[in-house]
Amino acid sequence: DRLTVEIRRGCTRGCRFCQPGMLTRPARDVEPEAVIEAIETGMERTGYSDFSLLSLSCSDYLALPAVGVELRNRLADQNVSLTLPSQRVDRFDSDIAHILGGSRKAGLTFAPEAGSQRLRDIVNKGLTDAELLAGIRTAMTNGYRKVKLYFMVGLPGETDADVLGIAETCRWLQHQCSEIGRLELNLTISNFTPKPHTPFQWHSVSSTEFDRRQQLLRRALRGLRGIKVNFTDLRLSAIEDFIGRGDRRLAPVLEAAWRQGAGLDAWFESVERTYAAWTAAIEAAGLGGRYRALELGAWSAVEAMAADDLEAFCRQPLPWDHIDSGLDKSWLAEDLQRALAATVVPDCSFSGCSSCGVCGPELGHNVVIPPPPIPPQLPQRAPASERICRLRFGFAKTGSLALISHLDTLRLLERALRRSRLPVSFTGGFHPLPRLQLALPLPLGVEGRGEWLDLEFVQHIDPELALERLGAQLPDTFQLLSAQQVPLTGPSLSQELHSARWTMTLAPESGAPIAADRWQAAVATLLAAPELLWHDTDKKGRPRQRDCRPALIALELAAVTTTSAELALQAAIDGAGRSLRPEQLRDWLAERLGQPLVLGQQCRQQLSLSTVLTSQ
Ligand code: SF4
Ligand code: SF4
Fold first, then answer.
1. What whole-number distance in Å separates Cα of residue 256 and Cα of residue 395?
2. Distance 338 CA to ligand 2 centre (A)
């Protein structure tokens, strides 16, 4: 739901666990003017209210503060907000804090990855405790109180002290920031799984160890307040590790797991189901347990190796060696040695080259654009909120758009309004929204052919012009049928709702068809009923009962075929927007026919308003 523009491709920070950082070298900045132009045009053409600048490490784009301020200045009165993915905390300063958010301030995310300086050096994160604290204090000084932090457990060289260091770091940060305010931390603790084409590709991990370390950390965090923790499921990490460094024997496993329902596993509601699918597929392929010939085991095994032995070990072929990422395998092995010595390699975009093998005529070189001057910040303006003119549109929402929910329909309209550049009036407050009202939400899957919406504007506008400009921005399945001016001070659209006319198809769930006279008799007894009770539950789940008979204005049998009946319903709508629903008619008629019915096509043909009825 937002426009995303890439500002920098590649990252040369050199974190040793990070596959994208290794595979996307060299790092190349996009020209600041090109970024600004892409966002400005993109926002205009899409109508989005949020945009995001994308890069593996946005803060390494040195033009970020200048680009951000320029964009905020240019889009100052358009009620838009900027988000950035996880940022380098050591580069987070007040310039970056200023450009984030806008009319909506999202949370901040940093990734210290490890809980101690020693381990951060092993993984080449190159972040000091002082830098971490300075970044978080800057965030808090700029109004942020909730910060999301990513850590990993199971990193090479990790000891229990490093795991406990995560809890200690959080406690220390909270304490050090206490005079600014209460720092709330949202922690995501994932399990490190080694990736090909990284210096840690020779390392191996164990689910038992992950489990033990997670438990250790859980206990250490238990007494701390203002900290929420989310641990990655061990089973998903086990699968990720198994697949991440697989060889060609993995092919039948992938197919079998997919056939058993695996796929997009982190999104599954049932980890049990996905884990069962993968383990069954792995067992069926005879790959239970560890199947890689090359396993270095725990970090201590690497540390115990003589340098020559380690070199020889790293020279052995790996299943992915034939994929040329541009990195020299010997550089990866050397970097593993540097990790063992906790030696940090500087970021080659800003310091010396460590000769990883990537740069050259084929893949090019790092492109770092020097930071342009930061333009003066213009004050942000709230979107115009005067209420000068109110227009009422009749519309139809049909075809595939019936499958769009009420909230998505509102978003669709908001974007179309932005694209139309009509002078819409916005509500005030923290999260301004266009003054837009739909008469009554349509149930999902139901077409509406006679719906209503009201829009308010900050200046007088010709209804025909508004119809044309907004209509041009809407899909074919959302048709504006009419537009007329209504008094600003008049009742709201929902207060004017009077009744709804529906058509629907009903059919017997199974068994013999129902003859026309039986349908007719069922409709007649329904209309003759003194009361029509409907049992459901209120918002708190308490059972309740309502007599819906007063809402039933008319019910007609429009047509009967050998398989189904088509009915037309006229139902009153009360002041709270309550009316009859087709499924209620289905149940009441099924009761009278003595057999279950299914609801087919349903369409709200017309919503009638009291003013329209009066004027007719
Ligand atoms: S900063 Fe580190 S973790 Fe982030 S993309 Fe770059 S190399 Fe990867
Ligand atoms: S060759 Fe040197 S400058 Fe190029 S990406 Fe590798 S380390 Fe960086």
1. 49
2. 16
Distance between Cα 158 and ligand 2 center (Å): 28
- Given this model, what pLDDT does residue 459 score? 96
pLDDT at 293 over 80: no
Q: How confident is the model over 495-513, as pLDDT tens digits?
A: 999 999 999 999 999 878 8
Considering the chain, what is the average pLDDT of its residues? 90
CA nearest 584: which of 555, 606, 541? 555
Residue 89: is its pLDDT beyond 80?
A: no
The torsion angles phi and psi of 223, rounded to 5 degrees, stand at -80, -5
Set out the domains of the chain in order of their start, with CATH numbers: 1-85+348-381 (3.30.750.210), 389-490 (3.30.70.580), 497-615 (3.30.70.3190)
- How does residue 59 score in pLDDT terms, banded at 50, 70 and 90? confident
Instruction: For ligand 2, say whether the CB of 353 is within 6 Å of any of its atoms.
Output: yes
Instruction: Please answer whether residues 11 and 60 qualify as being in contact, where contact means their C-beta atoms are separated by less than 8 angstroms.
Output: yes
Residue 348 Cβ contacting ligand 2 at under 6 Å: yes
Q: Tokens for 350?
A: 């800003």
Rounded distance, CA 208 to CA 201, Å? 20
Note whether 84 and 58 are within 8 A (CB).
yes
* Cβ of 366 below 6 Å from ligand 2: yes
Please write the tens of the pLDDT for every residue from 149-165. Answer: 999 999 999 999 999 99
355 Cα–ligand 2 center, Å = 5
In the structure encoding, which two tokens stand for residue 42, read together? 């993109």
User: What ipTM did this prediction achieve?
Assistant: 0.99
Ligand 1 atom at minimum distance from 113 CA: 3
Split at pLDDT 50, 70, 90, the class of 264 is low
The CB of 227 under 6 Å from ligand 2? The reply is no
| Residue 11 near residue 368, CB atoms below 8 Å | no
Q: Output the CA 183–ligand 1 centroid distance in Å.
A: 25
End-to-end CA distance of the chain: 42
- Cβ of 359 closer than 6 Å to ligand 2, yes or no, is yes
3-state secondary structure 222-262: CCCCCEEEEECCHHHHHHHHHHHCCCCCHHHHHHHHHHCCC
Compute the distance from residue 14 Cα to the ligand 1 centre, in Å.
7
